[in-house]
User: Which sequence fits this backbone?
């Protein structure tokens, strides 16, 4: 069947026509579907917009009622007079026409005041009782749809506002009933406006139970209609919905439901589906009409085409399927068609002439084809040119032939020749200025040029004995142009048949020449590409090595696996975090790494739970804690997919990140807040206590007591100020913003000031000083170093049990000060941590409850800011802290002077 269609134009046109009709029908159906969906969406959007506007207006009305009720409750809360409350209610109702009744309830829900006055309902329990129960449990307004106080029988929205004292105790409830009839008035106005325009519309507002709250059909208020309104249930779950459903009249209606979020209500707009979708029906009618008209027009066109064109062409094609090999006989049907005066008759006459001319040319073409096949059989340029010359001489009667090729300057020179002298091949050079030369003109114009050569012609061809020349251009867009030049010894021009044969042969020769040149160029290009590929491969290898080095230098761990879970790559960071050492895990299952993670985990069950969530794709990130070399680390794990350029997964990756430092910073923040809060509370409590004591008017304090109180307040304030200053200095030092006021300072004066400062606090203490006879000045900020000496001396005096020794030594560039005390000592495991912020040794915590653990940390920060060093050493009985300060002026070390300060001398200092 397919072969028959290919051989028959009639069947091809019929197939195209049927296919076109099918495409039109399918396109019409597609357009119908898209337009119908768009029209339906527009209708639904219109109804949803109307419902949304009504929902917004209802929501604003409820919010306004709630806010006005809260204001009314504040007014009622300021009086206890029943008559005054009734007057306030009357004024409120006059300002709110939508309010049906106003009520005042006691804390148990018994009606105390109502407006309009309803004596029968007073001192009775308010109904519905659910509103009272919810209001007693709430701090804001609550509302419910129903009939408030059975004697009124007025349906409305009951809004109740609890009134509470400052301690949260309920003193009463203010409630209003908003008439549902008033709430329905805007809906009635919208429906009437639509009916005046000839449109049928129904709007309903329902509460969370499906009860009608507002509707143009007033007699149906408070009826449960959830089953009658499709889409309403979705709107009550806070979703906009539009769908077609069966109405009460048995016809299809379009229901559009929109939620009222603040009230858990819903607005449902409904209109007859036939009316709403009338535009869709009209579009269907117009589309059907267009398809019918198109089909009828196409059928009429097809019948005309079949009778006037297809059948005559079919007859001509059947009678002229093959050219006869003997004497031509024209069929009778063709003769009849040739007599027609239209295009079919002209086609029939042309076919007859074509057959007559074709038989005449067939022999020449067969010879030309054989010649051309011989030329295109090679891909080497010189071999192709030699074949062109040889076959050209065989095709026409010529005595010599040559191919001329332009060089870089455009000068035509002999590439290959046959039948010419060596002088002709060697000396011929035709520049573009030789406008009388046939080869130059032929290459310039792209057309054959022939000339007769006479005695007055100065050319190499005439000297070689040739009298006629024909130049045929062989022009290739990709390989450049050459000229085929043929010569005859007889002085007569080439006829048109010979020119046409050579020109047709030149077209085939052009292809052969272009293929040969392009093949030669492509071979050179392939070598260049091979060299380029080798260079790119080396570059890619270098980039791969760089990438591998970068990934290996990452502190974070990276693991790459295939789809089957086999490990393809792990960097050094992953091996270090999983404590694998130099062990290679590539080509192993990912479970091997999971086992290593589980083995190092502090909580193996936690790791198992994380891995289970990874396998179930429940999460892609998790945090686990591992222990390596008696050190705990917090690792953040992130599992991700690796995709190719098309977005298809080709493997998975696991990133392990050490977040121990980050967690320590979080813990530091928590510790800082706790420590500062504790330390700030103590001086503030003392200040507050003494200030309150001084402010008591019923007690008279002596001047000494008042001075003592004020000194205590001043001392605690200084303590608080110093604490804040230390924290700020520590923060500045860590941020690199601590500014030092450096100046040459005497070490002896510095120590004297420090000792004098500690004297009032430790009057019985004894200090032994070991000083050189002479000391150079140090280049320091004396205020900062006084803080260092105060912290170190305070620690030595508080935690020591004997004499405190201060020993000063002068070195090359620094002065070293060592402060020692006898006592309990510092445990070896605590010694590396004593300069950390908020750290306090166990013995220190037992002996002294106060302190933030910042003294040594601040001392270390100040000493290092001066370019010095501080370190601690401790034995069972002696603890020594040594720090160094830079020398201002170079000096030599002198003899050491040892002194012992007694308690009496300590007081004098």
Assistant:
């Amino acid at each position: 069947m397919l072969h028959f269609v290919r051989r028959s134009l009639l069947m091809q046109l019929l197939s195209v026509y049927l296919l076109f009709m099918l495409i039109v029908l399918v396109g019409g159906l597609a357009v119908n579907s898209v337009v119908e969906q768009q029209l339906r969406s527009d209708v639904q959007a219109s109804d949803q917009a109307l419902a949304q506007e009504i929902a917004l207006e209802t929501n604003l009305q409820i919010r306004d009622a709630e806010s006005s009720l809260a204001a009314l409750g504040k007014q009622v809360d300021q009086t206890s007079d029943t008559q005054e409350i009734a007057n306030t209610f009357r004024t409120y109702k006059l300002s709110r026409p939508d309010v049906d009744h106003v009520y005042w309830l006691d804390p148990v829900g018994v009606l105390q005041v109502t407006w309009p006055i309803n004596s029968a309902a007073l001192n009775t329990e308010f109904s519905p009782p659910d509103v009272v129960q919810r209001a007693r449990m709430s701090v804001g307004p609550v509302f419910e749809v129903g009939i408030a106080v059975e004697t009124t029988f007025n349906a409305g929205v009951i809004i109740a506002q609890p009134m509470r004292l400052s301690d949260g105790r309920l003193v009463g409830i203010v409630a209003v009933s908003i008439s549902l009839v008033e709430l329905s008035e805007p809906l009635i106005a919208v429906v009437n406006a639509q009916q005046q325009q000839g449109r049928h519309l129904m709007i309903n507002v329902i509460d969370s139970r499906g009860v009608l709250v507002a509707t143009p059909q007033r007699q149906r208020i408070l009826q449960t209609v959830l089953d009658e309104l499709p889409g309403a249930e979705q709107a009550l779950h806070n979703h906009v919905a539009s769908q077609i459903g069966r109405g009460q009249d048995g016809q299809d209606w379009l229901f559009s439901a929109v939620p009222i979020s603040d009230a858990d209500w819903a607005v449902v707009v409904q209109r007859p589906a036939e009316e709403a979708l009338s535009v869709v029906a009209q579009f269907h009618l117009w589309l059907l009409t267009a398809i019918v008209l198109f089909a009828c027009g196409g059928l009429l066109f097809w019948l005309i085409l079949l009778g006037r064109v297809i059948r005559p062409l079919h007859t001509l094609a059947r009678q002229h399927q093959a050219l006869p090999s003997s004497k031509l006989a024209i069929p009778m049907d063709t003769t009849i068609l040739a007599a027609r005066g239209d295009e079919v008759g002209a086609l029939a006459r042309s076919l007859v002439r074509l057959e007559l001319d074709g038989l005449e040319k067939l022999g020449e073409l067969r010879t030309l084809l054989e010649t051309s096949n011989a030329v295109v059989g090679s891909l080497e340029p010189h071999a192709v040119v030699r074949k062109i010359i040889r076959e050209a001489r065989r095709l026409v009667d010529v005595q010599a032939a040559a191919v001329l090729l332009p060089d870089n300057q455009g000068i035509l020179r002999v590439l290959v020749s046959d039948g010419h002298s060596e002088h002709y091949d060697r000396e011929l050079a035709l520049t573009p200025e030789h406008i009388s030369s046939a080869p130059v003109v032929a290459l310039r114009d792209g057309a054959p040029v022939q000339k007769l050569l006479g005695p007055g012609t100065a050319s190499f061809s005439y000297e070689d004995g040739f009298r006629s020349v024909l130049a045929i251009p062989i022009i290739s867009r990709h390989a450049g142009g050459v000229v085929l030049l043929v010569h005859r010894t007889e002085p007569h021009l080439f006829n048109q048949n010979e020119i046409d044969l050579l020109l047709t042969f030149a077209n085939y020769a052009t292809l052969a020449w272009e293929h040969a040149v392009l093949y030669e160029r492509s071979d050179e290009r392939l070598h260049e590409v091979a060299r380029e590929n080798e260079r790119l491969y080396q570059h890619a290898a270098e980039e791969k090595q760089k990438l591998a080095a970068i990934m290996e230098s990452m502190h974070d761990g990276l693991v790459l696996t295939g789809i089957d879970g086999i490990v393809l790559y792990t960097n050094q960071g992953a091996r270090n975090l999983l404590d694998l050492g130099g062990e290679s895990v590539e080509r192993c299952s990912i479970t091997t790494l999971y086992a290593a993670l589980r083995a190092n985990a502090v909580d193996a069950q936690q790791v198992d739970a994380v891995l289970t969530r990874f396998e179930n794709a429940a999460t892609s990130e998790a945090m686990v804690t591992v222990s390596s070399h008696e050190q705990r680390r917090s690792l953040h794990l992130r599992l991700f997919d690796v995709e190719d350029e098309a977005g298809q997964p080709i493997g998975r990756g696991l990133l392990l990140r050490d977040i121990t430092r980050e967690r320590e910073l979080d813990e530091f923040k928590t510790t800082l807040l706790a420590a500062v809060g504790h330390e700030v509370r103590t001086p503030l409590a003392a200040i507050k206590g003494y200030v309150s004591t001084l402010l008591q008017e019923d007690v008279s304090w002596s001047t000494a007591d008042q001075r003592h109180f004020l000194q205590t307040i001043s001392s605690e304030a200084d303590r608080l100020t110093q604490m804040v200053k230390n924290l700020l200095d520590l923060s500045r030092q860590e941020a690199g913003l601590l500014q030092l006021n450096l100046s040459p300072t005497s070490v002896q004066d510095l120590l004297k000031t420090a000792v004098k400062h500690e004297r009032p606090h430790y009057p019985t203490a004894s200090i032994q000083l070991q000083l050189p006879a002479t000391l150079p000045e140090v280049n320091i900020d004396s205020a900062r170093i006084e803080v260092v000496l105060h912290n170190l001396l305070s620690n030595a005096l508080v935690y020591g049990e004997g004499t405190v020794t201060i020993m000063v030594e002068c070195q090359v560039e620094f002065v070293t000060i060592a402060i020692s005390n006898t006592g309990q000592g510092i445990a070896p495991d605590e010694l590396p941590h004593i300069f950390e912020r908020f750290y306090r040794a166990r013995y220190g915590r037992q002996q002294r409850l106060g302190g933030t653990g910042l003294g040594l940390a601040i001392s270390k920060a100040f000493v290092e800011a001066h370019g010095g060093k501080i370190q601690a050493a401790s034995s069972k009985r002696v603890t020594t802290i040594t720090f160094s300060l830079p020398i201002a002026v170079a000096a030599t070390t002198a003899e050491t002077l040892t002194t012992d300060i007694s308690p009496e001398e300590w007081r004098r200092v």
Observations:
- Residues 332-365 form one domain.
